[in-house]
Amino acid sequence: MISSYSHKDQQAVWVRVIKDLKPEIFANHNDLRVMCSSSTTTDSHYALFYVFRKGRREPDWIIKCHQGEQPIMREYLALKVFNADPDIYVPSCIGMTSSKGLHCLLLDYQRGVHHSNDYIRTNSSVLKKIVGTIANAQLRLSQVFETCREDDLSIIEGFTHSNIGLSQAEAKTLKQKTQYGRKAPLKYFLPQHGDFFLGNILFKKDTLILLDWETCGMVSIPFFDVWTLLLSSLVEFSTDSFKRFFKPSAYCKVAELAISKYSEIVSIPSYWGRELFPSILVRWILLNEYNHRRKLQARLISILEFYLKNADDFLPIKSLKNKNRIKQIYQPPIC
């Protein structure tokens, strides 16, 4: 594991990266200091290093290291696309290299930025801007990354046929609901960010900066990024909180606003935003297997089980009989 590297090993990694990708400052590398991110855990397959010039309180660069080449290559390609696009803001990519069996990416550090987990629940214009930005990013990426529709659907179908502890009725429900993925036309499948939770969105005044593109293009199911964003906005990531997206509530209004905005930009009927939810949930569970995020994966499995046990409560909104209830759910958030 990366985090088992000694401090000496870490020094060797970042010195090599700086030498390869920022040679003009290598002569003064003794005036640099490195700090390994506290988010790097004992089971990590990646590490994040902050590199400081002498006397600086904030880092000058970030070095991202992975044991696998593909995550770094995906992020590198995505950043190169967006660094040339004036409408989509991402960290400036200096380059990538390999050192001591690790694959590394050197990025400029983002200054004067902040997170805000409350924006999308309390400010409809910010929510629209976030969803609009990621939708346009997907359209841009579709010119570089091929769709992985068949891989997505095969993986989902493999999951539905596996023995995951579901009852016979739940397994049948899951199989029925994931069939919607086969019905969705190919043109709706776009390369998704794959990890579009609130922590990967930075605010700099009126500008959004999107981070962490290692899983870019691994998933292409429509609305995957939208639902990742919505679920990550929950104050408490639990089944009780999650079901609010499917009940008349402020959360449901936020979900409808996000779904509608995405639908408008990528030209996909908005009802797919809820029809595809079970497929999205299964795909997210399996993507977190790849990312070694066991705790998040366990929570998503519990949400899937809850969804399947209460399937009748999660009917598509268009099938509700009470027209006034439909109107109540579909109206935008009051902000």
Concise structural overview:
With 335 residues, the chain is an alpha+beta fold. The chain is 45% helix and 12% strand.
Protein architecture, described:
Helices cover 45% and strands 12% of the residues. The chain is α+β, with helices and mostly antiparallel strands. The protein folds into 2 domains: 2-108, Phosphorylase Kinase, domain 1; 119-330, Aminoglycoside 3'-phosphotransferase, Chain: A, domain 2 (Alpha-Beta Complex), CATH 3.90.1200. The strands form 2 sheets. The protein has a 5-stranded antiparallel beta sheet, sandwiched between helices. The chain has a two-stranded antiparallel sheet with strand order 6-7.
CATH class of the largest domain: Alpha Beta
Q: Note the beta-strand portion.
A: 5-15%
Largest sheet: 5 strands, antiparallel
Instruction: Just name the CATH architecture of the largest domain.
Output: Alpha-Beta Complex
Number of strands: 7
Low-confidence stretches: 317-335
- Total helices: the number is 14
What is the assembly state of the chains in this entry? Answer: single chain
Helix content: 40-55%
Q: Name the helix and strand elements from N-terminus to C-terminus, one letter apiece.
A: HEEEHEEHHHHHEEHHHHHHH
Widest sheet: strand order? 1-2-3-5-4
- Residue-averaged pLDDT: 80
Number of domains: 2
Q: Span from first to last CA?
A: 46 Å
**What Rg is obtained from the alpha carbons, in whole angstroms?**
21 Å
At the fold tier of CATH, the topology name of the largest domain is Aminoglycoside 3'-phosphotransferase, Chain: A, domain 2
Structural class: alpha+beta
Shape: globular
